Amino acid sequence: MTSHVPASPAPDGSGRPESALVDFTVDLTAQEAERQVLALDAIGPHWDPLQVMNGEEAAYDLLYSGLDADQQRLYDELVASGVLPRRGGGHAPA
């Protein structure tokens, strides 16, 4: 068994061992800017975020429509507990 050399006390006199951690910082600003440019280029000029959000809302409304009695009870419990937001009246938009 090898002997263990205890860490030297901190120079501030606190009695805690001196930290061997080294400050490590990476600036990802340039990489993030390039990633954003590439993502927006891949999406294309015809992307309409408002249309996408409206489509997602319509999909959620459809998902929670036409529930049977047991599913509706569970949905109502989840809404009452704040897990899910209240959506429509249980019928998909026409």
Structural class, from secondary structure content?
A: mainly alpha
Compute the gyration radius: what is it?
28 Å
Order of helices and strands: HHH
Task: Determine the mean pLDDT.
Answer: 82
Question: How many DSSP helices?
Answer: 3
State the separation between the terminal residues, measured CA to CA: 77 Å
Shape descriptor:
flat
Runs in which pLDDT lies below 50 for 5 or more consecutive residues are none
Q: In this structure, how is the largest beta sheet organized?
A: none
Strands, count: 0
Give the proportion of residues in helices. Answer: 40-55%
Percent of residues in beta strands: under 5%
Overview of this protein structure:
With 94 residues, the chain is mostly helical. It contains 3 helices and no strands. The radius of gyration is 28 Å and the shape is flat.
